[in-house]
Structures are given as C-alpha cells and as structure tokens.
C-alpha cells in the first residue's frame, strides 16, 4: 500500500500501520552577497518512522517520532477514543487546532515550507481535545480521525499546555497553571448539495486563548523566532533585544483568530487563511509592557497539469513513473502570496536591526509526483522585507530556490 | 494480539514483535497557593515504539527507545542468551535488579507513578547479568526472560556501570574503574504446594554495592534529585547546596538492601518493599564527608471490583468496553502508603530550605481497563513533608490529582 | 530471515524490511595507573531500529536512527532512485564515499572499532550523490544499492554539506556556501576473469575537496577530536589549545586521498587503506595559519578457522550454535596494524601535552559467530604514542581489551 505496511486482524477491529518518510532538501540563495548568513545547504527536513492504527474498533492511536533537522522530536503521540462520532476524545501530543495549512502533513503540502500564518500558531502540544463530526443532512457521518475533512461539519475544542507563536515545545507549561484553550469549527457547506462546483469548498474559523504569567522560557532560547518561509532564515529574533532590555516574557492574555478556507475542484485548488495573534509581552525587567498584535495571511493556487484530482492531501498520479511504458507520473504547478506584519510595539523590546516589521513573499512551485510515494519538488520564493537591517534600513530581498526529494509510505 | 504485532517463522524458532505505548497524563494540584512551583500540566510520560523477539530459539532481545517527557532515551537494549534456563546471560542496557516495583512496566503498575522505594534504586544501566530460574521440586522450569515471575526460584546477579539513587544515566561510569554489583533472589515458596491461597505469594531480597571515587557528575545536573511520587515535583534537590558548600560528589561505598514481596489471590493484590540506601558523600571541596543513610518503604493493596484476576502485570478485562453490548471493561481500586526518610547528615551539604528530610504519602486510585490495550487511571495522593521550607519550616502538604489515558500493544 | 522482517507485495515491486541491532560492549585497560582517564566501562555502542525497502521497483530507501552511546542520532535517511543502474541518484543523509572500512556496517566489521584511516574521513552527511555500476565485459549489471560491491566497476560522486575529519554532524554547513565534493572509483578487476584466486580482489580510490571559510564550529565542541581505536580514548584534542591560542577554525582548502583495497578468498581475508587528509587551519584570532597534513594507514588480515567463506560483510556460520547437536557456530581470527601521523604544524595551535603526534597500534581479535544474527567478539589492542604528555613526554602505552555481544536482524 502507499500508506504504510498494514496489519489487520481477521475481524477487522484491530489494525496497525508501520510507516516512514524522508525529505531530502537543498536550498540555495540567489544574489546573496558573500559573507551573508544565507547559507546554501542540504537539509534533511524530515525522517520519520512511525506507527498508527486502531484497536477494539474505536481506539485509534498515532506514535510518530521525527529524526530530521539534526535532532529528535516527538511529533504526534495521541490516543483517540471515538465510540461516538459526535464526541470523540484525543489525549496526548497532537496538532493544536489552529492553522489550516498546519493540518496538511509535510508530505501533503503544496510547497516545501508552509506560509506565514502557520508560524503564528503553536505547533504540537500536550493536551486533551474533544471533537465531533456530522454528516450533511440525510447523510451518514464517517469517522475521520482527529483531523477531519470528510464530513459536513466538524468541531474541535481542547485544552493544552500552550505554546507561543511558532512554539512546538509546550512553551507555557513550566511556569504557570494557566492552560491554553483552542478550537476550530469547520464546514463543507455544499457537501451533497448538488452544486458540483462547490462540493470541494470548505471554510472555518479557529481560535485560541491563554494567559501566560511572566513566561520567559521560550523567548530566550530562540524557539519562538519567526523565519522566512522557504528560505528558513530567522527574520524576527527574540534573542536580539533592544539596548537596555534584558529579557522578554509573555505576561498577560494571548489570543489568536484564524479564518480559513479551501476549494478543490478537479485539477484546481485554492487555499487561504488569515491570522491575528495578539500577545502581551514584558521586557526590561517588567518596566516595559506591550501588546503585540501580529498578523499574517496567505493565498495559494495550484493546478495539476496532468489532469489528476487536486486535493487538500496529496495528488495521486494515474500511473507511476516508468518511461519505458510511456508513464511519467503527475505534474502540479502552484503559486502563493504570503505576508507577515509584526506590530511596531515589538521594537520597544527587540532590536530593529535584527527583526523585520514586514515580510511579503511570492512563490511558485512545481511538484512532480513520480508515484504515490515519491515526489520531487522545486520552489522559488522572493521575499521583500521592511526593517531588519542596521540604521533603520531594510533587510535585503531574499531569493530562495529549494528542491526536495520526498518519500513517504 | 494485545502484545504487539507478532511475526513468527514456520519452525517457531524465530519471532519478532513490534510494539508501542503512549501515556497521556494530566496532573493538577489542589490547595496550591498562587506562585508556587506546583504547576498544573499535561505530560506525555511515555511514547515508546519498540521491538522484542527471539532468534534461533535461545537468543532473546529487546530494543526500546522512549520519546516521552520531551526527550529521547534508550530504555532497554539487551540481548539475552538462554540456552540453559539455570544460567542465562543478559548483555546491554537493562533494568538493574533492585526495586520490585521497577520491574513492573509502566503499563503494568497500579498507580500512575511508582512509590518512594523505587527512587532509591538506579533505573536502567549498561552491564552484564547472569540469571537463572528453577521450577518447584518435580516441576518443569519455564523460560521467562530476564524478568522472571513464573518459576519457583530465580536469581539475578550482574555487574553494571553503576548509577546513583534515581539515576538512569550510568552516573558512575565516567570517573572511575569501579563498577556496581547488584542482584536479587526471588522465591514463590508456595508454588505447587497445594496451599491455594498462597500460590501467588512471592518474596525476595535485592542488594547492590559500588565504590564511586569522587564522582560529582550526576549531582550537579540534578539527575539524582528525588521527587514526590504522583506529583513529580523535586523534594530533595542536590543542586541547592548549603551556604559554603561548592559541590557534591559520591566518594566511598554505596550499598542498598531491598527486601520485597507481593501476594496475589483472585481479585486481591498486595505489594510492598523496603530499601536502605547508604552512600558516602563529600562536599565543600572534600572537607566535609558524610555517610547518608536514606530509607523508604511502601505497601499497596488493590482489588478488582469486576472480579477479574489481579496480577503483578496487568488486569485483563473479561470483555472490551462496548456499551451497546452491555460491556464496560474492568475496574480496579487501589490504596498505597509510602514513606521516604532522608538522613539528617544530608543537611551538612544540602540547603535545608530546598530539600525535605521526610515525606509521607497516602494515595488512592481507580483503574478502568477499557480493554486489553487501553486503560484510564485516576489517582489522588496526599504528601506531608518534614523540612524543605525556609527558616526550618515544613514544605506545604502536596495534594496531587492525576489522570492517565494509557495505550499499549 | 537474518536480514530483518520482510514484507513484499505480490508483484515483488514493493518491499519493506524492519530491522534492528544491539551492541553491548565491555572495555578494560591493562597496566592502567590509578587515577588515569582510561576508565573500564560498559558501553552500548549501537542500538538501532530501522526500515529499508524498495517501492515501485526503482525507489529504494533506508531510514535508520541510532539510540546507542547515550544519545540519538540519525545514521542513514536516504532515497535512492535507480531506474538506470549506470546513473542512480541518492538523496539525503548517507555515508560519504571516502573510507573503505566505513562502508562495512558496524555489524560487518572484523574488529569492534575501525582503524585510524576511517577517522580522517567524515562520517555521514547530507547531500546528493550520483552513482553507477557496470558488470564485467559480457556480464549483466546487478543493482546493488548505494554501497556496491557486487559489480565489476562502480563510481560514486556527490556533493555534501561537508564534515571535518571524524565529523558526523555536517560540520561545515553552518557558516559558508562552500560544499564538499567527494567520490570513489572501485574495481573488481578480476571478476569473471577465470583467475579464481583473484575473483575476490577489489581496489579503488576515493577523494574529497572542500574550502571551509573560517569555520570554528566543530573544533570547539570536540566533535572532531581523534580517538584511539579500540580504547576509544581521545588522543588528539582540538579543545586543548596551545597557550595564547584562543580558538581554531578550518579556513582554506581541505582535501583527502584514499587508496584502498581488499582481497577475499575462501576463509582468508585482507583489507587495507591509506589516507592523506590535508586541511588549512587558523588559530590565535587568525594570526597563525597552518597547513595540517595528517595521514593514516591500516592493514588487516583474517582467517575463518571453521572454514566458512570470509567476506567484506559478515561470516555466515554453516550451522547455528547448538551444542546438543554438536554445532558450535563459526570462529574467525584476525590481526591488524594501524598508524596515525599528526602533522607537526598542528602543535602551533594545539597543546602538545594533550595531543599525540603519532599513534601505532597492533590488534588481534577473535569473532565467534553463534549464528547469522549473534556474534561474540573479543579484541586486544596495544597502542604506542609519540607525544601527548607533559614536558614533551609520550602518552603511556594503551593496552585495551574489549568484548562485544552483537545482535542484528
């Protein structure tokens, strides 16, 4: 199968899949003056070996470590109890229900890296989530796991340790009792409506709320720094402070709002989302207190040149690459516009020479699906910055070219 | 199977099992004054994906990394050569033969966390262990792996790098040639005796001896700190020293004695152990030298309300949770008393404001076995301390409530 | 199978193997004066759980984390596209094509640790490699994966982030655009020649070139330190600098040349390689600039006493250990001579008291193959040093005895 090696019990109630993925990247930067920090490099962005499955018909699990990026992380480790489709419980380490693009697995996404809105959400977090699915009126509900894009309506609401923007390490857990509440409501409003063109349209909104108390943990380590998308170079650096500021902490309410939507029809695909992330920060030993309203949005369009269906997950080529049989796999073209706005209050705490206040990026990409398991990606992204250089100047335009050979089963 | 996906060769001589486990915890603290270090939190206490098996009929192995707790550890990695049941050899990383409760896998234990005696043993260690099993007179001996609770008599004796109390990282290996010797003798004295009530009674004694030489490694890192059981908050802190003391090292003999026993009969279970851990410590650049005799004991009782058999390993419900068939799984109730005494000499080296001299805890717990693979646990533990606060005061009582959803296959 | 649990699709185009390995070592040092840094110890040198396989007939992959040595590393994570045997592409993390002995898996090598030449190569690295195989004239070419010892001629040439000598962590990637080019040409000149005695003779040459720019990263961390072979004690320490030198960086060209050969015939085996690694180093804030020409060579011979075939990979015993049937497995004897010469320019930067200028080692070893999966190794190595002690003296002779119980499937 192209979804792992699968073992299923005779009665079908128990099954386990053994899976793996590898992503070998290469990035290089054009017009990059010598001596700059934009280093051409080979990255191993993902190396996962994982188990997922179902026991006793209603207990799903996923257990997925990642050995890529020169370190070992636990991406997912959750149990999902789903005796009732309308009220299932996911316990453990999981994706927080915020960014839409985050829901795409790394092997499903259209570009080698996600756009800016995803980086204003936390990534994975430990917690408990209640979620439910509902079929369109008169239709059956189908179990779809904690990430549900099959049914008419889906809700997710959970309590998590809480992580700052771009945080994946349970950033807020260490110093306070306050936990983060996050949730999403998602609809396929035209599912089974008979309006064929709109069957594949989905829209929703996600949000989160938490009140960290004087939490400096993840700022000092740089874990919450923001990066350019495809180039993956730091553009907002919470470790480079304004002169006189000795440390940053999250202190006070932090909320996010995420309207989001997609639309897939035949070979065409469209996806977009917006986020406002508003957090209270202190610095300068508590003497400075700011409200930082960062925002980001993106819109991306894609087209499968070889005619296969475009989807939120991955394109499945009609036939695997085999030139001797005249088979070449599937080819997809994509374009994306993405912007990040950093609140100007930020620069009461951070050095304006090291962090940008605005990033605007356009990208184009080609995806060649050799077969259901192997994909070759080639992306180009051009990013323009406001601020981020010495003496109030702008950080130089970043022109990043990246390729990825990706294998997943 | 509920013990992993199993692959066996046609002749039965070779088999491999692929297994996994996830533990999603939640802890919160009652009557916990604001600003305290007792943070309510979600923990991912275990996330394991492992292999175990047998080759050529007599070569067993286990290879078990753990991705939980925000880090990656190698729990077990050993080879067991057992051509003779009476003299088998285990080589590699393994549990040191000391605490009885440690022998229970995390997925077998009755409470979400082990009691104090376990924390005065080292955890896993690299070494070589000779072990053997003997059936009751007139009975066959059955191979039972390095952890043997099937036979009449079992011995284990091994040489290890050595680890300090609560040490899992081969603490003593780095600075001296001296290795730790540890062993256990275990009996089921009434096995096949005809006295039915005592068939499930087992008792034994374990001990260890090592002479570390001026080893400061694991004290400074806090790896040897002792914690409250279910709350998992530090209560003896080797990194908070008395004024004037600049560092601590283990220097001189360190021995432990561990009498231990259990008794299972139908739905009833009883387990207890005691430990004396005596180590020599130096501090203050060698000017202070103390003998620290710490001790701990625990006793726990449990009862399976739904009538299934109670065992040292795990309760197997008669039928999996399925309300539509009137099946609800198994329910177990448990209670535990546990104490830790820290030698008063300790406070010649450690700050008495940061480390307690005594901890006394009682706990009750409910375990709901939804099926052979999934268990929901809910525990409450109340711990009272002597010392550990400023000006000779007592650390406030800790009231910890914890739940765990656990999945293992 | 003795090569993992294998799953193959009905048409044979897809297959995955689940594999594992464990190495439990013990080392001790003879005539080692009390207080020395040569600590007797138990090591867990390897603990791997990995996947490898083939999809769509022409896409191979390997995904192999290692949990040994008290840390987690990603050893291999690559995809190999091999539609054409003469031009296949390996993308991701892989062995750099340099040292011959490095190509032997840890479970294939004849001694518990590799000899000096391997340590003057980098280990694994992220990059892209083109490679191809060619059968002897008139013979078919057989696909053999990125490490090919089956065919008449093989070439490999790749671009990698670059790693310093003994570097496994992409040492040069962080501070410069310059990448490392490395390659190997390998021949079995007498394959299918009819000269039976020389059928198993192979020879080749490997080389690398890179120009790091002021890269100090891996020197300061000690990652590039050189060690004695079987004893695994540091003998060239890049963190112990000459008085007045404040830091070391690689700056300028770094090239290596590696002639290498082996010869296997029946129970006899012979292997040897030489390396010159020439790198430019700066220290003393750039005021000192040296060219460091280090070299190493080794030759090893082995003989299978029980008559099985000797190979570059591993000896397969005729019958598994089972004394009751009079089967004892296979026994191999081996001897090795190995030398390392450190350029005297080195001591313009490093402290001569902490790093040796010359190491000469002889070793003998016995390997007892209990079966195709389990091996017990016992090695003794005697190493003599020039320099490396205070006041211009020589570091004391190192007499290391090591055993390993190794299991792989």
Distance between the termini of chain A: 8 Å
What assembly state would you assign to the polypeptide chains in this entry? homotrimer
Total strands of chain A: 19
Largest interface: A-B, 39 and 33 residues
Shape-level CATH architecture of chain A: Beta Barrel
What's the order of the H and E elements of chain A? EEEEEEHHEEEEHEEEEEEEEE
- The helix tally of chain A amounts to 3
- CATH level 3 topology of chain A: Porin
Portion of residues within helices of chain A? under 10%
The CATH class of chain A is identified as: Mainly Beta
Radius of gyration of chain A: 22 Å
State the fourth-level CATH superfamily of chain A: Porin
Number of domains of chain A: 1
Secondary-structure topology with pairs:
Three copies of one chain form a homotrimer.
Chain A: E1 5-8, E2 15-30, E3 41-55, E4 59-66, E5 73-81, E6 88-95, H1 100-103, H2 116-119, E7 124-134, E8 153-160, E9 180-187, E10 201-210, H3 217-220, E11 226-227, E12 234-236, E13 248-265, E14 268-283, E15 288-304, E16 330-341, E17 356-369, E18 374-387, E19 398-408
Antiparallel strand pairs in A: 1-2, 2-3, 2-19, 3-4, 4-5, 5-6, 6-7, 7-8, 8-9, 9-10, 10-13, 11-12, 13-14, 14-15, 15-16, 16-17, 17-18, 18-19
């Amino acid at each position: 199968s192209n979804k792992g090696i699968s073992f299923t019990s005779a009665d079908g109630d128990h099954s386990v899949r053994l899976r793996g993925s590898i992503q070998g990247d290469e990035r290089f930067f054009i017009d990059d003056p010598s001596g700059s920090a934009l280093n051409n490099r080979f990255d191993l962005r993902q190396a996962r070996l994982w188990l997922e499955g179902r026991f006793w018909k209603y207990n799903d699990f996923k257990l997925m470590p990642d050995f890529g990026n020169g370190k070992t992380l636990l991406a997912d480790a959750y149990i999902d109890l789903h005796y009732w489709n309308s009220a299932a419980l996911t316990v453990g380490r999981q994706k927080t229900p915020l960014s839409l693009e985050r829901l795409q697995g790394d092997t499903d996404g259209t570009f080698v890296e996600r756009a800016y809105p995803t980086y204003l959400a936390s990534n994975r977090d430990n917690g408990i989530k209640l979620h439910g699915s509902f079929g369109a009126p008169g239709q059956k509900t189908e179990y779809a796991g904690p990430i549900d894009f099959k049914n008419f309506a889906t809700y997710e609401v959970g309590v998590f340790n809480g992580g700052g923007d771009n945080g994946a390490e349970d950033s807020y857990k260490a110093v306070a009792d306050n936990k983060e509440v996050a949730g999403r409501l998602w609809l396929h409003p035209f599912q089974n409506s008979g309006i064929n063109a709109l069957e594949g349209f989905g829209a929703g909104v996600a949000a989160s709320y938490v009140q960290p108390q004087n939490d400096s943990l993840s700022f000092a380590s740089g874990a919450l720094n923001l990066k350019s998308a495809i180039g993956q170079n730091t553009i907002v650096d919470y470790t480079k402070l304004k002169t006189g500021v000795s440390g940053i902490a999250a202190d006070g309410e932090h909320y996010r709002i995420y309207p989001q939507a997609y639309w897939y029809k035949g070979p065409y695909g469209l996806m977009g989302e917006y986020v406002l992330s508003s957090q209270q920060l202190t610095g300068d030993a508590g003497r400075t207190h700011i409200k930082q309203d960062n925002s980001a949005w993106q819109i991306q369009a894609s087209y499968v040149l070889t005619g296969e269906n475009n989807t939120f997950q991955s394109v499945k080529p009609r036939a695997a690459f085999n030139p001797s049989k005249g088979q070449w796999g599937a080819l997809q073209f994509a374009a994306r516009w993405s912007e990040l706005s950093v609140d100007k209050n930020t620069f009461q705490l951070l050095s304006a020479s090291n962090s940008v206040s605005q990033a605007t990026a356009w990208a184009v990409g080609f995806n060649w699906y050799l077969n259901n398991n192997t994909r070759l990606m080639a992306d180009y992204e051009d990013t323009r910055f406001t601020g981020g250089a010495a003496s109030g100047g702008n950080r130089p335009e970043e022109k990043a070219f990246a390729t990825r050979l990706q294998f997943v089963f």
